[in-house]
Amino acid sequence: MSLPPEVRMAHQNRSLFTQLLCCFRPSSNHRHDSIIHSEQNGVHTPQKIPGKYLLPTVKKSDRICMVIDLDETLVHSSFKPISNADFIVPVEIEGSIHQVYVLKRPHVDEFLQRMGQLFECVLFTASLAKYADPVVDLLDKKSIFKSRLFRESCAFYQGNYVKDLSRLGRDLNRVIIVDNSPASYIFHPDNAVPVSSWFDDTSDTELKDLIPFLEKLSKVESVYSVLDGLKQIKLISPIYNQQKQNQTTPNNTTNTTQTP
Q1: Which residues form the FCP1 homology domain (predicted)?
Q2: Domains in the chain, ordered, with CATH?
Q3: pTM exceeding the 0.85 threshold for the entire prediction
């Protein structure tokens, strides 16, 4: 029995969306054999890869490098029409043009403007460039991002596209990654500033709330001096506060859920 047209369309849209944006399940022709990682005692260790670094060489800079994710961190995109979309981006997939509707996360403009004043900002997404590049063109009118990296710059590891910070060509003591997906920074969790996934909540203030913390972080010699302590206090962003709340039952007893 054939599926109803609306069901077939939904399956097709999910498949196309996965090809375009998703950081999981690569296409069968994706080459990742040059990316090698080992695992010892539960620690994922990037192996040195021959060839150039992902970012252009820079003279000694006083700025920390901030790697920023795109989807569900700064924007949310959908093939389904959205009446209040900030952008509508046409993308060619398998010979057909599809409209992608893009919502900007609240306070994203303020966030990017301030981060551009403090950090070397790098856009790093597991999405395909043919979608992400035009979205960033519209999002980043002031050229905050000094470099853009897409899916082909990711390492493929255990079913995920991972952003290997060791390949950037920057001192890891002075690199942070702002990302909603822990799988994206599995090789360098100690460099992460986690954020919650955003879809359409117009009352969200997470990017704005992060600014004071990141202003202070921009002045340190080593990001680990701050981010190591972050593991203990876990107060950097609402995602941690929410996780803390979820640990406590209504009668103030703690359940077995643990924060990452």
Answers
A1: 59-217
A2: 60-78+106-260 (3.40.50.1000)
A3: no
